[in-house]
Design brief:
By secondary structure, the protein is α/β, with parallel strands linked by helices. The chain contains 8 helices and 11 strands. It has one domain: Acetylglutamate kinase-like (Carbamate kinase), CATH 3.40.1160.10. It is about 35% helix and about 20% strand. The strands form 2 sheets. A 9-stranded mixed beta sheet has the order 4-3-5-2-1-6-10-11-9, with helices on both faces. Strands 7-8 form a two-stranded antiparallel sheet. The protein is globular, with a radius of gyration of 17 Å.
Length: about 240
């Protein structure tokens, strides 16, 4: 791209667990994780301070486990542990590329990763390390979207980059409606009124209250993790109205 100056100095990247599964649809595809790591490294090489939150849906979802008869708190805890597995896989792939990383977990497991300590996370970012924040918020009943926004606010990220399997936010599901219209930019309140489902309402409200923009983009396009920070033409920008 012509413009090589990043739009933000510090961002939080939210990855779905499903993005780690590749064509398998479940579990971890080492090939897909390696591709994601290469794209993350491209952003890292620009000097952007980067924190990452990964979901666990490729392994287990707490809500699905609950629907299958598992206690909800137990199911959510299982889901949080799944995010730790994904985080370690991403850490390994990044470190094979020479990217210095730290995994911090909201559930203490000191033989596996550091505990999440806000000031320590910020210090790692300042030292040029990629920080992978695992185990959600450490609490049941909260999604990884909410955990991602909470961590983004805590570490003073300037934007949340939400990686999805579509290229932005539409007025209806583009996979079901060929006439769906993509938004290049939309205000928080407009997104809420239209019920566009950018994130769960707790996460989205937190973004609005803290004036934290969200950029929704397609992770399946190689290079987009980096491109979304370099160009306003990638994805959909959700933020406060400029008027």
């Amino acid at each position: 791209m012509a413009d090589t100056k990043p739009r933000w100095k510090r961002v939080l990247l939210k990855l779905s667990g499903e993005s780690f599964a590749g064509d398998r649809g479940f579990g971890i595809s080492p090939e897909r994780v390696a591709e994601i790591a290469l794209d993350v490294k491209a952003l890292y090489d620009l000097g952007v301070e980067l924190a990452i939150v990964v979901g666990g849906g490729n392994i287990i979802r707490g809500q699905k486990a609950h629907e299958g008869g598992v206690d909800r708190v137990t199911g959510d805890t299982m889901g949080m542990l799944a995010t730790v597995i994904n985080s370690l896989a991403l850490q390994d792939a990044l470190e094979q590329l020479g990217v210095d990383t730290r995994v911090q977990t909201a559930i203490n497991m000191d033989k596996v990763a550091e505990p999440y300590i806000r000031r320590r996370a910020i210090r790692h970012l300042e030292k040029g390390r990629v920080v992978i924040l695992a185990a959600g918020s450490g609490n049941p009943y909260f999604t990884t979207d909410t955990a991602a926004v909470l961590r983004a606010v805590e570490i003073h990220a300037e934007a949340v980059l939400k990686a999805t399997n579509v290229d932005g936010v539409y007025d209806s599901d583009p996979r079901k409606n060929e006439s769906a219209v993509k938004f290049d930019r939309i205000d928080f309140m407009d997104a809420i009124k239209r019920n566009l489902g950018v994130m769960d309402m707790t996460a989205f409200t937190m973004c609005q209250e803290n004036n934290l923009p969200v950029v929704v983009f397609n992770i399946s396009v190689r290079g987009n993790i980096c491109n979304v920070v370099l160009s306003e033409e990638i994805g959909t920008y959700v933020g406060r109205s400029e008027s």
